[in-house]
Write the structure tokens for this entry.
Amino acid sequence: MLTDGEVIDLVRAGRRDEALAAILPAYRRKVFGLAYSFLRSREAAEDVAQEVFIKVWRALGEFDGRASLSTWVYTITRNSSLSALRARRSERSLSSPDALEEFEVIDESASAETAASDAALMRLVNGLPDKQRQVVTLFYMQEQSHEEVSAMLGIPVGTVKTLLHRARSRLSAAAAGAADAAEADA
């Protein structure tokens, strides 16, 4: 991975393609994860990630290093994801059965009990408010640090921690409610 200064030097030397070739492997997974946290669709997140790297390539000449490269890339990703989300909202509801099915991809080798538990957890996560869902997805499912989630979403680290705490509380309460309901049905 090149430093921000090395990326700027490559761009100034007219080697924009080489700069992108260094950036792409370092940010591919994180860009996809951030897009997915907003869009909750693998296909839409892949499209946005592709669009992000095209935008990064086109705008590399404008990157001046005032913000870190990661912040710059995450800002482009966040803005592109929000634009895609606005465009999709008119097309279909995120709470539709199709959207839930996209998010409930379960390893076929997992036991039926594990698969059912995973699906139930995903339904609970999907029921969280948007910001809490995004933070949970990035922190736990994409395994990003508090600082990386902060940079990706453009919010302070303290806010990330608060959102995680609130999400865990909601998930715990929802899981307890689901367990109580299951006992009542039995």
